[in-house]
Amino acid sequence: MIVREGEPGSSAFILLTGACDVLVHGDALNRLRSGELFGEIACLEGGTRTASVRATADTEVLELDGDALRHELLQSPTLLEVFLRTMAHRARDISTREMVVRDEQRQLRRVLERLQPSLDDFTDHPLLRVEVRWQPLTVVSGDYYDLLELASARFLVALGDVMGHGALTAPIVGMIRGQLHESAQATSRPHELLAQLHQHMRRHGHPNIFMTLTLLVLDLDARTADVACAGPPGPLLCRSGRTLPVVKQYGWTLGYPFENVQFASEQLTVFPGDVLLFYSDGLSDAARGSDAGLDTLGTEALGHILAAVCSERTRGIPDEIFARVERAHAGRPLEDDATALIVAVR
Predict the structure, then answer these.
(1) The pLDDT of residue 191
(2) How confident is the model over 12-30, as a mean pLDDT?
């Protein structure tokens, strides 16, 4: 190892003979050829190495003292031209790699969006009105929402949140969605599905990544809702201008390393005009005011926002909830993935 990523560096090097790999976070990104300069970024700015360089064969390098190199660059236009060409080549390589990463992120975002249910049928549905606002913090979100029609007038609503955010959460979202679609039947109970998903995640998920998930089965013939939660937050119900929590108890978060985890379903009666809000903690955990250290908005304040919005409108509820949370957040952007899913009973 000639230079190590993250270490301070005051010298640059020219590869005279042999071969070297350039590594970032342990991944080989490039191979140096004889005559190439490396280590110049940390040398010039007096900072830390941005990459490691490891010899892959017997290698000879010329070490250039930083002060001496800067002096020679001022004295020699030819050397300066070579140096600038090296820097331009390095910048082009970095730009190309970043473009590949951005393209992959966009493709992953499109995959997640295609996994989401179409809500077009619920714009004028005779039984339900469903709206959503799904807002990733970065390109990819660990928030998951779903809506399945289990039978006539019987629907399964899901909203979950993989701990963390970004690309690492996407495989968990895909895995849980696939297993839920495979397992859900017309007679499924939420707590039974959560138990199956927990075991599936323990067997096939990452050992240090967990997920909260709320499942609610809405039977509009019986006018009942059956709900179970693997970790908070639970949904809120707005009825006749008042908002109240739907669940009283929470099970363990999916994937926690416990064998005999039990989940429980709770049942409530639903009425025409009821509005259910399923949300991720990116909304409720938003800090109040311009100081990030202030208390979070919290479930109670979010409930007040829901009641106020429902009293003023029947459509566009998720967008208006986001707008009011952001105003309470003093205009600062949210600091986590955030989702608001509205299910209104007609």
Answers:
(1) 96
(2) 92
Beta strands in the chain (DSSP E): 11-17, 20-24, 27-32, 37-38, 52-55, 60-65, 128-135, 143-151, 154-162, 211-219, 224-230, 236-239, 242-245, 266-269, 275-279, 338-345
pLDDT of residue 288: 57
Domain encompassing residue 62 = 11-108
More confident residue, 334 or 179: 179
Global pTM value: 0.81
Max Cα–Cα distance, the chain, nearest Å: 87
Beta strands in 136-188 (DSSP E): 143-151, 154-162
26: helix, strand or coil = coil
Domain assignment present for residue 5? The answer is no
Total tally of structural domains belonging to the chain: 2
Q: Are 294 and 288 in contact (CB under 8 A)?
A: yes
Nearest by Cα to 14 from 82, 64, 72: 64
1 inside domain: no
Q: How confident is the model at residue 161 (pLDDT cuts 50, 70, 90)?
A: very high
244 in a structural domain: yes
Q: Side by side, which strands form the sheet with 52-55?
A: 27-32, 20-24, 52-55
Q: Of 75, 108, 141, which closes a domain?
A: 108
* Amino acid, res. 35: G
